[in-house]
Prior knowledge:
The protein is mostly loops. Helix content is about 10%, strand content about 10%. The termini are far apart. Its main location: secreted.
Amino acid sequence: MKMLARLILGLAIFDAAATAPTLESINYDSETYDAALEDLDNLYGYENIPVGQAKIEIATVMPLENRELLTPPPQPEEAEEEEEESTPRLIDGSSPQEPEFTGVLGPHTNEDFPTCLLCTCISTTVYCDDHELDAIPPLPKNTAYFYSRFNRIKKINKNDFASLNDLRRIDLTSNVISEIDEDAFRKLPQLRELVLRDNKIRQLPELPTTLTFIDISNNRLGRKGIKQEAFKDMYDLHHLYLTDNNLDHIPLPLPENLRALHLQNNNILEMHEDTFCNVKNLTYIRKALEDIRLDGNPINLSKTPQAYMCLPRLPVGSLV
C-alpha cells in the first residue's frame, strides 16, 4: 500500500510540473552581471587609475523588462486652494506689501542700504565720517546730531534735512561743498551748531536764528558771500569762526552775546569806530566779546583805537 501511495504522489507532482508555464530568463543590461568576484579586478583595472583621480560611482541597474513605474498620485486641487487662502488678504483682496526696512536702521540710502547700516547710529546721533559719500544720506527723523566729515559731498539740497525738527548739530567738515540751497537750514527749529569748515563754499544761505555756534572757516567766502545783517537776530550766538576766507569786511551787526569772533587770514582792510562799540554811549561796555582774532589781515589796528574802548580785551592783530 505504501508503495502504491508513493507512486500516485509522484505521478501527481510530475503532472503538475509538466503543466506549469515556462519562466523566461530576465536579461539585465550589464555585461558583467555574471562575472565572478575574483574577475572584477582584471575586468575594471583599478590598478591603472592614478591616485587622487579615482571615483566611486553608485547606481542602481534597472532591468530592461517593461515594468510599471510607481508615480505619486496627483494632488487634489483643494490643497492648492487651501495654501492660497493661507496668505493674508486685505479687504480689497490684494496682498499686503512687505514692510520697509526702517526702524533702528533708518531709511534706505541711494545704495539701498539703511543709513544706520552704512553709518553708525548711537541713540539720536548719526556718524557718517569717512565713508566716501557724495550726498547727504536720508536720516532718521529723531536725529539730533549729524556728523559726515571727510567725505565727498558737493551740494546740500533743501530736502536733505527736511522734517528733522530735533536736529541740533550738523558737522560737514572736510567735504567739497560748493553749493547750498537757500532753504537747506532755515527751517530747522532746533539747530544750535553748524560746522562747515574746510569746504569750497562761496555763499551762505539764510541761517536759522537759533544758532549758538558757527564755524565756516577755510572756505571761499568773499564780499557777497555773507548776506547783509546775517547774524543780527542770532541773540544766542556765542562763537563765530570765519577764518581763512576772502572776506574784506567784518559782517555787521554782531550779536550782543557774541563771545568769540575769529577772522584770521582774510582780506579785511579797515574797521569803523562803531564796529564793536556804541559811539553814542561812551559808558557802554561789551563784556561778552573777549576773543577777537584779526591776525593775518592787512589791517592796522592802531589806526582805530576808539573801536576797542568798550571791549574787555584788545583784538589780536597787526598794530603796524
